[in-house]
Design brief:
The protein is of the alpha+beta class. The protein contains seven helices and 23 strands. Helices cover 17% and strands 44% of the residues. Strand 18 and strand 19 form a beta hairpin. Helix 6 runs antiparallel to helix 7. The longest helix is centred in the N-terminal third of the chain and has 11 residues. The termini are far apart.
Length: 373
């Protein structure tokens, strides 16, 4: 096999598939990037058996072939071959998979492996799919991924629900303390779909997506896998098996207090309050809403803070406590200048949602000792 590339092109391809190379594995072949130039195109693939990424790279095939090269080593070599970026990189291997990588005055010799040993990506039927813009997918991931659980004590919480009904896509994440819901209107009507996509997969896709509103992503579904196809890249992931939480039972339209507030003013106050909170500090932020004013109070071992934000309130006065981080996370990804918060009582979840139902953020309150406020 003998291939030539522009350095930027091969490096970009390596960086894309590197996201599917496992950090720890008992199968050493999975630590490799598979280069397939047996046909008319050059494809790079990495696969950790849960997530697989394949991307096409522009280059010239002088001799066809396949080879698997150790991913981190290949990445480091190509990255440091030249500082110009547009230099030509040549990758050449013999029948024993001894590989020469050269560029300008630099030549590396490394040992490759038979590409036939590599675990190919699973085949996914292309008849069950949806289509949306790269911008929409990147945004919906950004607006929900922060509220998945960081560990797998409950596997369902480490993924996100993708539910398609007609021309509507609902994406849901939760971690036991909060729920994030985004609803997107699709251009076409599709078959009903309900799957749980691992958060790791969505995180990696978000890093690869360009976010162009004019470019589309095709998402294909099978019983156990999901496939994302965009630009010259496909990402295949296993789905999380099981039935997702019954979200509709957790949502309520009941409220006793409805508050509209300037998002930036509230977010600025919350940011200031967190100056007094350390990583493991369980001190709640107390919000007291009376008349047309929201008072925010924070007391911790480092000091205290008190601030007021003007609001437009309908309904009852209320005093309620929250983990300020959960409020900040939700507010930061809402694009509206003004947000509306619905509360029932100090022990029931609060909802931040818009009139059109494009987003809903549910946040559980925390208990506090009223005497110490």
């Amino acid at each position: 096999m003998k291939l030539t590339f522009k350095q930027d092109a091969i490096l970009n391809g390596i960086n894309i598939v590197l996201k599917a190379v496992p950090s720890k594995t008992t199968m050493s072949i999975l630590e490799c990037i598979f280069i397939d130039a047996s046909g008319s195109e050059i494809k790079l693939t990495a696969n950790d058996m849960e997530l697989g990424i394949e991307t096409k790279v522009e280059g010239t095939i002088q001799e066809r072939g396949k080879i698997a090269l150790e991913a981190k080593l290949l990445s480091e070599i190509v990255r440091k071959l030249s500082s110009s970026g547009d230099s030509t990189v040549t990758i050449e291997s013999d029948e024993k998979f001894t590989t020469t990588i050269s560029c300008d005055n630099s030549i590396f010799h490394i040992q490759g492996r038979d590409g036939e040993e590599f675990a190919y990506l699973p085949y996914i039927e292309r008849d069950h799919y949806i289509c949306l813009s790269q911008f929409s997918l990147k945004e919906v991931i950004r607006q929900t991924i922060f509220s998945i659980a960081p560990n797998d004590s409950n596997k369902m919480m480490t993924g996100e629900l993708f539910q398609v009904t007609g021309n509507q896509l609902k994406v849901v994440s939760l971690d036991g303390h909060r729920i994030s819901i985004r609803n997107i209107e699709l251009k076409d009507t599709y078959r009903d779909i309900k799957v749980i996509v691992p958060g790791k997969t969505l995180n990696e896709i978000s890093k690869i997506l360009g976010g162009d509103n004019e470019k589309e992503v095709l998402i294909f579904f099978s019983t156990n896998h999901i496939l994302f196809e965009f630009d010259h890249t496909i990402v295949v992931s296993r789905l999380i098996e099981g039935d997702y939480f019954r979200i509709d039972q957790m949502l309520s339209s009941d409220y006793e207090t409805k508050v509209s507030v300037n998002k930036k003013e509230l977010l600025d106050c919350l940011d200031r309050a967190t100056i007094l909170v350390r990583e493991n500090d369980k001190k709640p932020l107390i919000i007291n809403i009376e008349d047309q004013e929201m008072e925010l109070r924070m007391n911790s071992s480092f000091g205290s803070m008190n601030a007021q934000v003007p609001t437009h309130k309908t309904g009852s006065d209320i005093m309620i406590g929250f983990n300020p981080k959960f409020l900040i996370d939700a507010l930061r990804i809402i694009d509206d200048e003004e947000v509306t918060i619905y509360m029932l009582n100090p022990k029931s979840p609060c909802f931040i949602r818009d009139e059109e139902g494009k987003y809903i953020y549910l946040i559980l309150p925390v208990n506090f000792n009223a005497a110490s406020v």
